[in-house]
Amino acid sequence: MLASAALSACSRKAPEGAESASPTTTVSTVVSESAPKSGAASTTASATCPRTGLWAVCSVERRLAQSGFVVKHVGGAAPRRAGFSVAPVAYNLGRSRLEVFIYPSESALAADVAKIDTVAATPRGAPNPWPFFSPTFVRSGNLAAVFLTENGTQAERLTNALAGSFSISA
Question: Does some domain include residue 12?
């Protein structure tokens, strides 16, 4: 009886138009279906976040969520930081803190970074103002970020998410 059940399961005809699919084909189908489509479907996504090629708060939040972070915006204004001419947007990522500085252009960021010790994420020669942890400094396009965590793996994931080879307008 087992042999006949196995034989009948193997001899079922595939649905019309379906070819035998390998796991690789299934995965690529899922990936291609999740890609943005032209037309009305993509206008909703692009309307909520500008597609300028520069970082915006919405593109940072989307990238962090896509990278598996649970993003919680810290309420209220984050304190201004010495050496940074723009105010940060602060997030809690689990037990870690992320402060993101979005500049109007890459050149505006470069002017600030020229005066910053990127190991300490402070103006050169200034004491470390960051509580608890050594900062991880990330720079990508018009974005600078300071990540405070004791988890090296999480710091690497964040660095890859914000400074990796992804397209920021995707």
Answer: no
* Structural contact between residues 122 and 162, judged by C-beta atoms closer than 8 angstroms: no
SS3 content of the chain, % helix, strand, coil (to 5): 35, 20, 45
| Strand (E) or helix (H) holding 43 | helix 40-48
Full pLDDT tens readout for the chain, 170 residues? 444 444 444 444 444 444 444 333 222 222 222 233 333 333 344 458 889 999 999 999 999 999 999 999 998 888 899 999 999 999 999 999 999 999 999 999 999 999 999 999 999 999 888 877 789 999 999 999 999 999 999 999 999 999 975 444 43
Closest CA relative to residue 138, chosen from 75, 77, 169, 96: 96
Whether residue 105 lies inside any domain: the answer is yes
What b-and-e string marks burial along 50-69, b requiring 16 or more CB atoms within 10 Å of the CB? eeeebbbeebbbbbbeebeb
Number of domains forming the structure of the chain: 1
As a whole number of angstroms, the distance between CA 37 and CA 32 comes to: 9
Is residue 33 situated within a structural domain?
A: no
Give the CB-side neighbour count of residue 132, counting CA atoms within 13 A: 8
Residue 95 is part of which domain span? 71-163
Residue that has been written with the tokens 């037990």 in this structure: 95
- What φ, ψ does residue 97 adopt, rounded to 5°? -120, 140
